[in-house]
Task: inverse folding
């Protein structure tokens, strides 16, 4: 039998690199805590916040049902552990609170692919292919294994998932789980989201795309990838935009372009979430 | 296993050759591309290869399928190195086996030629003077050179 699904937003982090409470950081004018609850609530039976004991009275948190860590200093796994014990017959859709690009479609994909007979259902990281434990469904059946994992002195939920029976999915919205750890990343994310705030499908509106750079273009752009809010309607327009933005030396007619891992026409329509790669002249062999 | 592979480790032609053996085949041809110590008048000390892996695999596999259909060759394999390579190292290996030698030769030639033009793999050369450059990209990006030119004109091996 499939257990009911609750939402658990992890807000107990200490945000050491950011040095500010990630849950209350604002994106597009709203605290991330409220944005994440807004995504979660329509999809689950009820929404809870995972907190440390000393956060119980925090006004931004207190208006939501709270689940307090049973063991302190365990990081996110401590929050998951507390939830699995608070409601032993419930599955938890666990979310970190530093995922500003997360969207409803990604959560729907996760829920649709849920494998209740396994310990958890999670996405593979688009960077290294490893499980993403903090946008995942943790089944009641994972509780004993989590207890044993903690008892053995482990903390890392990613490592946990790597060695347990977990259903792994490939993200359709590739940038959905890009997380925010530094003030610079926070600033960049806000710029990207502000640009994308308009209706994604309207002509002239901006959309979020992910771009990778290889070889000479990576050297010229000074980066290997970026998530970009753009009004470009086609790869052709997008290339002109990034060429100006990064001072790229290669011209579009010297390149080919790939969208979503296959060659594409320069004048095809760009859609939100597209993964675009501009290919410098190849030189294999 | 895919007929086009990327490898960070040294290529072992003997092991690959065994994969191509087939009772129906009487001819086998292989091509090896090696790292050369010079290019366009410059002394080269070492190379780096980089690939857009997902698309490289996909396009490489398409090329193998084309060769199979075109020449009726039952067995084709290609392995391309990625990462840092020294002079003399094996950078790319193509092998084909077929009932008769002509198809094996032609399939092998077709695969290496298409790979050089189509598969997203890039080569950075390091020179004796300490400079380095991405092959096929540096001259095109040089200021003042505005004429569009065909990259097939300056392939190097």
Result:
């Amino acid at each position: 039998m499939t257990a009911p699904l609750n939402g658990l937003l992890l807000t107990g982090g200490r945000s050491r690199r950011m040095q500010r409470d990630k849950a209350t950081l604002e994106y597009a004018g709203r605290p991330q805590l409220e944005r994440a609850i807004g995504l979660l609530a329509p999809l689950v039976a009820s929404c809870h916040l995972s907190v440390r004991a000393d956060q119980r009275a925090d006004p931004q948190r207190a208006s939501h049902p709270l689940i307090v860590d049973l063991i302190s200093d365990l990081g996110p796994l401590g929050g998951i552990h507390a939830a699995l014990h608070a409601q032993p017959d419930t599955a938890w859709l666990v979310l970190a609170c530093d995922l500003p690009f997360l969207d409803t479609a990604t959560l729907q994909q996760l829920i649709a692919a849920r494998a209740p007979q396994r310990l958890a259902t999670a996405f593979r990281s688009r960077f290294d292919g490893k499980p993403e434990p903090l946008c995942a469904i943790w089944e009641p059946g994972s509780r004993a294994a989590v207890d044993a994992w903690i008892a053995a002195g482990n903390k890392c939920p990613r490592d946990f998932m790597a060695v347990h029976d977990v259903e792994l999915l490939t993200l359709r919205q590739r940038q959905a789980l890009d997380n925010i750890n530094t003030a610079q990343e926070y600033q960049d994310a806000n710029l990207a989201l502000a640009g994308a705030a308009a209706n994604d499908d309207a002509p002239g509106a901006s959309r979020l795309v992910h771009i990778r750079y290889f070889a000479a273009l990576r050297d010229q752009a000074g980066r290997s990838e970026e998530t970009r809010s753009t009004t470009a309607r086609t790869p052709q327009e997008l290339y002109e935009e990034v060429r100006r933005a990064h001072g790229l030396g290669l011209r579009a007619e010297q390149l080919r372009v790939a969208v979503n891992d296959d060659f594409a026409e320069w004048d095809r329509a760009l859609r939100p979430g597209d993964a675009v790669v501009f290919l410098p002249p190849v030189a294999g062999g | 296993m895919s007929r086009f592979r990327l490898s960070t480790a040294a290529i072992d032609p003997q092991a690959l050759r065994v994969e191509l053996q087939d009772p129906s085949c009487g001819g086998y041809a292989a091509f090896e591309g090696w790292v050369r110590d010079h290019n366009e008048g410059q002394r080269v000390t070492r190379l780096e290869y980089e690939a857009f892996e997902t698309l490289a695999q996909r396009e490489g596999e398409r090329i193998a399928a084309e060769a199979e259909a075109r020449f009726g060759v039952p067995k084709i394999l290609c392995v391309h190195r990625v990462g840092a390579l020294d002079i003399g190292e094996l950078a790319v290996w193509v092998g084909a086996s077929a009932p008769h030698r002509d198809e094996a030769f032609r399939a092998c030639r077709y695969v290496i030629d298409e790979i050089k033009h189509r598969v997203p793999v890039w080569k950075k050369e390091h020179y004796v003077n300490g400079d380095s450059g991405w092959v096929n990209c540096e001259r095109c990006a040089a200021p003042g050179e505005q004429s569009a030119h065909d990259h097939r004109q300056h392939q190097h091996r």
